[in-house]
């Protein structure tokens, strides 16, 4: 079991959450869906009912929160670890991105901000306090990988290199994996030629599962759509869309990473 008890290194995707509209019992349905799909324990005794921390094997793995304002569909947000959210926001602006929501505190959890990269892909920043980020990764029911789906591979590479100091390994097929200055591999960037014209660039969250087909079937029975299945070098994978519109991936890892 891969667990974490210290803050994630700066520049590492360290947390994910999804926002659901209060109308039509969106949060209630999301809790039920992900509890049944991933076996999460969505704590209902927290003081902040607008933000729920989901746990697997008693470790935090993701968040669910109310969405306020606008009519955008729910989406899974990838957060990057930072030791100084204000300084990272300045780096985002200097690299051609935008700070969409200035740094703010989530009492008892951490400090955050929302940004868009130079191509418009949305992401969050996370300066850990009480919540260090994901406490469990690379195990069924937990996040195992994050990919940026972009139309501008070179521009995206330059942006994240400037903000987080990434270097890259070219994996072929218009795909690179990003590494921290320490050499640690942390995420991927893909030139996604198949993106529909109306779809913005975005970060895709991959959740590990024990079996792709059974997990995809459970999701479908719970109201999700199976958008695509594929057999990858890392294991069988399915691209899913939750009943409220959020898109995510499930993958049965052939050889789970050990960190």
TrEMBL record:
Superkingdom of source: Bacteria
InterPro entries: Anthracycline_SecMetBiosynth (IPR052164), Glyas_Bleomycin-R_OHBP_Dase (IPR029068), Glyas_Fos-R_dOase_dom (IPR004360), VOC_core (IPR037523)
Domain VOC span(s) in chain numbering: 12-128, 142-259
Pfam family, one: Glyoxalase
Protein name: VOC family protein
Stored PANTHER family: GB|AAF24581.1, GLYOXALASE-RELATED
């Amino acid at each position: 079991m891969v667990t974490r008890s210290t803050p994630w290194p700066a520049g590492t995707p360290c947390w994910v959450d999804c926002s659901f509209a209060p109308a039509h019992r969106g949060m209630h349905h999301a809790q039920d869906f992900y509890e049944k799909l991933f076996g999460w324990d969505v704590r209902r005794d927290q003081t902040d009912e607008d933000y729920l921390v989901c746990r697997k094997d008693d470790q935090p793995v993701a968040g669910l929160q109310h969405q306020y304002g606008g009519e955008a569909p729910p989406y899974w947000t990838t957060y990057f670890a930072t030791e100084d959210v204000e300084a990272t926001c300045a780096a985002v602006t200097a690299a051609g991105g935008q700070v969409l929501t200035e740094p703010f505190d989530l009492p008892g959890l951490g400090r955050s901000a929302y940004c868009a990269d130079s191509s418009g892909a949305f992401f969050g920043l996370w300066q850990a306090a009480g919540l260090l980020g994901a406490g469990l990764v690379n195990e069924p029911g937990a996040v195992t990988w994050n990919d940026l789906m972009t139309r501008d591979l070179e521009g995206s590479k330059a942006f994240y290199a400037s903000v987080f100091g990434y270097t890259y390994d070219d994996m072929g097929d218009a795909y690179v994996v990003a590494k921290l200055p320490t050499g640690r591999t942390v995420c991927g960037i893909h030139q996604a030629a198949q993106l529909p014209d109306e779809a913005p660039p975005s970060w895709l969250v991959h959740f590990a599962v024990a079996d792709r087909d059974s997990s995809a079937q459970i999701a479908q029975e719970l109201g999700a759509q199976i958008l695509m299945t594929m057999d990858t070098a890392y294991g069988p994978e399915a691209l899913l869309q939750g009943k409220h519109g959020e898109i995510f991936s499930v993958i049965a890892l052939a050889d789970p990473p050990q960190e």
